[in-house]
Amino acid sequence: SDLLILVGLVWALIIGVGGITNILRSRILRVTGINRGAQEAIATMTKYSLITIGVMVLLQVWGLDLSSITLLASAFGVGIGLGFQDIAKNFGSGLVLLFERPIQVGDFVEIGEYQGTVERIGARSTMIKTFDHVSIIVPNSRFLEAELINWDHDHPVSALRLPVGVAYGSNVEGVCQALLDAAAAVYPDVLSMPEPQVLFIEFGDSSLNFELRVWTAEPSKQVIIRSELYFKIEAILRERQIEIPFPQQDLHLRSGNLPIDLSPRMEAMLMQFFQQESNGKKVNLTGKEQRN
């Protein structure tokens, strides 16, 4: 019964610390002006610290020897570690994420095939919300083992590159101005500084290929911004009668005296074909007649 009471007190401690952490997060940290990622890191570390101190105080009040408990916990930890290595690794990775902060809540990140906004960094895993509002739960260890792209880390301004092809014969300077006007029309999603750029990339198979390069301070909206830019580009090019060509290949034939050698049998079949055509009959290549 004493053990049940102790477990109940620990459970009540965890619930109480959770309530304190929520108050800290919603009523204190929110009005400090600290960014959202730092708020989450402070709240999480505060929660773990209070739980650890509270459990130690409870054990001392309960009259248990902490030195013997430490030894028992060490032995128990070794056994648990052998069976739950992944959980321990993810928990340790979560602590590294909290202290080093390569990602923070609110950052727009890309890891592997996943791309989205960090919604929560937990002890074992991190939740990312994608463009489709799908929540992806990623183990914390993956953020330390795999290549991570954090679009908001340190400097949130990022570039967007949009390839555009126009027909041969188009005025190159006119195309450049049209693309810059399209970028200006999407302000403020597209920043005026750094200035948008237009690069002439190459002479393509069926088009002159350009690249519009713009910058945005909202990388999480890059799909929407890219779509808006292409809408503007198409409208401006159509208005200024600048053609966007279909992929095509031109075949140029030149006349010349090229000798063609036919076998006697082929010559006879061709002669028969033309004679029968003039008489209203059809002949296939086997030489058999077909009447209309």
Could you provide a short overview of the structure?
This protein has eight helices and ten strands. With 292 residues, the protein is of the alpha+beta class.
Quaternary: single chain
Number of domains: 4
Please describe the biggest sheet, giving its number of strands, its sense, and whether it closes into a barrel: 5 strands, antiparallel
The total count of strands amounts to 10
> Structural class, judged by helices and strands?
alpha+beta
Tell me, rounded to a whole number, the average pLDDT: 80
Helix fraction, binned, reads 40-55%
Shape summary: elongated
SS strand fraction: 15-25%
Q: Enumerate how many helices there are, as a single number.
A: 8
Describe the strand arrangement of the main beta sheet, using strand numbers.
4-3-2-1-5
Walk me through what this model shows:
It is a single chain. The chain is of the alpha+beta class. It has four domains: 2-83, no CATH class; 108-150, Roll (SH3 type barrels), CATH 2.30.30.60; 158-239, Alpha-Beta Plaits, CATH 3.30.70; 263-292, no CATH class. It is 48% helix and 20% strand. The chain contains eight helices and ten strands. The protein has helices at residues 2-28, 36-61, 66-83, 85-100, 140-145, 172-185, 222-239, 264-278; strands at residues 108-111, 114-121, 125-130, 135-139, 148-150, 158-166, 197-203, 208-216, 281-283, 289-291. The chain has a five-stranded antiparallel sheet. A three-stranded antiparallel sheet has the order 6-8-7, covered by helices on one side. Strand 1 and strand 2 (114-121) form a beta hairpin. Helix 1 runs antiparallel to helix 2 (36-61) and helix 6 packs across helix 7 (222-239). The relative contact order is 0.07. The mean pLDDT is 80.
